[in-house]
Please model this.
Amino acid sequence: MKYRLDLSPKVDVSAPSVTGAQVAAPTPRPSIAWQPSTWPAAPATVSEEFIQTLKRIFEESILSEINNVIADAQKSAHSLEHRGHVVAISLMCALDAIASYGYRGKRGGHIQDFIANHFPKDYQPYAADVYGFYRCSLVHSWNLFEAAIYPGREAIRKTGGTLSFGLLDFFEALVAATADFLERLQRDANLQGNTRQRYESLRKCAKP
Model:
């Protein structure tokens, strides 16, 4: 896969703010994944360079951050137990953010479309449930009420009417889905239009 994501640590000797707007006097500086004010303007048509910019944003400011939390939890406790809510909420926010580039829709339509079009096949039938039972419950209420999560690589399944999956399995599915989205972005005109619009609106609203 051409746009396979690389979540390995990146070497950067600079020391910008860790996220958000720059707090020092603006000076010419390279694009920083977690500072939208430094992103280059979207091109008139989607190019290889633009897709690589998106890939870097998704890798460095979203997925690698979550991967670092997972790695730290596994190193200290050898498990995601007692880190489950923090990781799960981060995953749902990441899903929401990445899906918002290519898709539109009220009440989580963009999330459902992203899962249905890019996630591994075993997740696709549960696109609406992932939005309702997981994203909404975790982000708005912190807890799950009609579903379950496990700390490992348990595959998504519905048992006795209750949906469940492992956090590590979901993270790997999200990484794979993001790569698939970038692959399709090369040739899908509708995704290209939505993505350029979303990217540019985020870039323009950022304070330098």
User: Anything to note?
Assistant: The radius of gyration is 17 Å.
